[in-house]
Design goal:
outer membrane lipoprotein receptor (LolB), chain A; 7 helices; 13 strands; transmembrane; DUF6920
């Protein structure tokens, strides 16, 4: 699809140069019946250059090209209107280019917003720490949590201050909906608990949802845009969203287990294979249940979480299942997880994700 669009851009640019050729009598152009003043011939050339610039920018520097694309279409259509009889069919190509350029323009600004937030999140996180986790650091924890930490491999490893990761998977918005593939990046500040999650969901060929969840200072915000332009979800800084993002941080510390040693987490033994974790930020408090097998391998996390962030949202059981495991930098974590809402009438598994990349104590933005 991208290749076809690039070919269209290249040919459209070359076609616009014909106006310059005719205006300066460089060749006979039978396709254009009207004479073209040299001043307009220069505009035809400028338009050709703009379309060819879009062609080059899409190949080498993708983020800038929508500005040139929209400018090229506006200039092109102005010229076409002046030479309607000869050039009217080029309007179809301009419409196609505009329909691709406008969402890309929205994506540019959405990405800039998210990247600014990501950089702010990691800006004050040290890249290295001299502290290493010892078994003595674990003695205050329930026995099953100690087993989890030890078996995960955190003992002898540096304290985790930051996390960055990449995910892929599929999700759906309703029980009978279609699975939609997604790709995501996420950044965590572990010492001053915060995260920023950027996701792109493929709805249909050429149609996507751009989303961002963030959490900082006990406050959450959730934003989803169709084609990176039109708000589908825009909720933030209310009790339901705040507690939901706090629970998300709590559940996702399975990817950086030593975070459970921070003072903002308090553990309470429930039985031989489960423990309750309470997460506090200021006066905001949430809790959930971590369940393990008898060897300390994490099996699941469950909590009461608001289903949605609107006024009518009610608490439902939110369940994360650890499906398979992988080692990153010597620490074994659940790399494949399924997330399910357990409604009274039955479960709704809406998310299946896989961690593909995970880095500790490397507070830098992934290169594009």
């Amino acid at each position: 699809m991208k290749t076809a669009f690039l070919i269209l851009l290249f040919l459209h640019g070359i076609i616009h140069s014909i106006g310059f050729v005719k205006a300066f009598h460089l060749a006979e152009v039978a396709a254009l019946s009207r004479a073209i003043p040299k001043s307009l011939g220069i505009l035809w050339l400028l338009c050709a250059i703009l379309f060819l610039a879009v062609f080059v920018l899409m190949i080498f520097i993708r983020s800038w090209w929508p500005f040139f694309g929209i400018a090229a279409v506006l200039l092109s259509q102005t010229l076409i209107i002046n030479f309607w009889q000869d050039a009217k069919f080029a309007t179809i190509l301009n419409v196609v280019i505009l329909l691709v350029s406008i969402p890309a323009f929205g994506e540019y600004y959405f990405e800039k917003m998210v990247q600014k937030e990501q950089k702010q999140l990691i800006s004050n996180i040290p890249g290295k720490t001299s502290k290493k986790i010892s078994e003595e650091d674990l003695v205050h924890l329930p026995e099953i949590v100690q087993k989890w930490m030890i078996n995960s491999g955190v003992v002898g490893k540096p304290e985790i201050l930051s996390v960055r990761l990449k995910q892929k998977g599929e999700m759906k918005s309703k029980q009978d909906g279609n699975w939609m593939p997604f790709y995501a990046e996420q950044y965590f500040d572990v010492k001053d608990p915060a995260f920023n999650w950027r996701v792109e969901v493929k709805l249909f060929p050429g149609i996507h949802l751009a989303g961002r969840d963030k959490f900082k200072n006990g406050e959450g915000e959730m934003q989803i845009k169709l084609l990176s332009l039109f708000n589908v979800v825009n909720e933030g800084n209310n009790e339901k969203v705040n507690s939901g993002t706090m629970l998300r941080f709590l559940g996702e510390l399975c990817w950086f287990p030593s975070a459970g040693l921070n003072q903002y987490i308090v553990w309470e033994e429930v039985d031989a294979t489960s423990a309750k974790a309470t997460f506090s930020v200021g006066n905001k408090v949430v809790s959930g249940l971590f369940t393990f097998d008898e060897n300390g391998e994490l099996k699941s996390f469950e909590a009461e979480r608001f289903y949605g962030g609107g006024q009518d949202a009610k608490k439902e059981k939110w369940f994360i299942e650890a499906v398979s495991y992988k080692e990153f930098e010597g620490i074994t974590v659940p790399a494949v997880c399924y997330v399910t809402w357990k409604f009274p009438e039955g479960g709704f598994t809406w998310l299946k994700l896989e961690i593909t990349t995970l880095d500790y104590n490397n507070p830098r933005i992934f290169e594009e």
